Amino acid sequence: MHVFLDPSAWAGLxxxxxxxxxxxxxxxxxxxxxxxQLPHYQRNRARYTGLILALLMRFGLLIIASSLVNLTxxxxxxxxxxFSTKEIILLIGxxxxxxxxxxxxxxxxxxxxxxSHKKNKQSSFWYVVIQIVILDAIFSLDSVMTxxxxxxxxxxxxxxxxxxxxxxxxxxxxxxxxINSQKTxxxxxxxxLLMISxxxxxxxxxxxxxxxxxxxxxxxxxxxxxxxxxxIRNIILKKSNQPLRTTILYSxxxxxxxxxxxxxNTVKKSEISYVTNKSNHNYLNNIIxxxxxxxxEVNIINNVLKIxxxxxxxxxxxxxxxxxxxxxxxxxxxxxxxxNTSYNILPVCYKQLNEIIGVVPKYKLLHxxxxxxxxxxxxxxxxxxxIPNTTSTINILNLLRYSENxxxxxxxxxxxxxxxxxxxxxxxxxxxxxxxxxxxxxxxxNNNNWIVQGSISLNDLKKLLNIRxxxxxxxxxxxxxxxxxxxxxxxRNGQIxxxxxxxxxxxxxxxxxxxxxxxxxxxxxxxxx
Length: 529
Description:
GO terms for molecular function: flavin adenine dinucleotide binding. The chain is an alpha+beta fold and 529 residues long.
């Protein structure tokens, strides 16, 4: 042991430990990738088995170190290549590593996962171990010959190999966990193994390829991956400081966007054009894809996720827009208000909105008036639910669920009524407000028909759709006027009227006018369009 008294021996030992540790990394990478094929409880066993076999194999090679010199003697010679035993071993091992790495790369790129079946768990384990042993032989041969080339003292070499293997056993779990947790790291490690396998094949064929190039390329790839992992970590830290709701919203939007980008199926499309009420007749064209997520669905998901942060002031009907009943008015005035409002639920108050008595369905209130009941006692049966304007939207949803009339009154810190919320108001926040007669598009253009409002002018039909159904001297203004003038009566819903090359399907009508019509051009006259 006097050899360890020499400082140069210690320097050589540390250099050799570092070199052997670096040369063992490719072995660890291969063990990590192969062990993923096994169940979790067998992976550590495979890792320890692989590293211990590598250590024993290197011990065996060191014991027969004198015979390793003979491995470099040519045994196959021709005019193209000269092969020694070492070169044949490197060629076989490099080819095995190349094809195995290509197979693993293909599996990861195409997302093919391994499934361990109960019937072949043991055989699968030994199949993996056999592959590890084959690669251990190749890596150990290269490692031992490198060590012998650097140091001539067998004690120092054995010490360096043993210490480096022990180091790799301790750090292998952390290294393997990192590889398994990072998909990009797995691809990088497989790429490095691919480079090493190609280098082994080139070396076996007798071509001189400086290993410095290989180490520099591996080091640069690791540097790029480290920078990428730092960037990802900073993004994760930044997102962790965001509110949970915002993080979920961004994640859902990202998933939806990926879904939209990855759809390659042929979809069935139909164009819908909306003609607005404006004089310039703007068109809003939408392509509907039946097999993809629609923009409206994305908006609904976004609105649902954001509803918890939506202010109650943006949802409620403000007090200046609330239609309410003053209980001090006479029955005639109350009845007039009831008949002139479109609201089904009305607050009943004493002289002012802040003195609310109850919230009553208008048809019940109208029945109470017609039967000459005491309105005050009747309204007292429907007490209002009043909550502060600081209540969250989620809590309001729960309260609306148990509210008898699905109406909640909102007040401020002073107890003054600020507004009113119905379940439809929250529904409108999620879905969007439905069109009323003022916002309804005048024309909806489909592939084979047009849906128009009864109030659209015949002149607009001519300009926009090239539909001319009347003579110039006709005094009808709208499509509703034309149909009433021609057939002398209000058509029922579902009735079909014919004129010239067009059929008019009545979608909606009342006692006084036609509201909505579908115009269909007869097929036999399609060439006239």
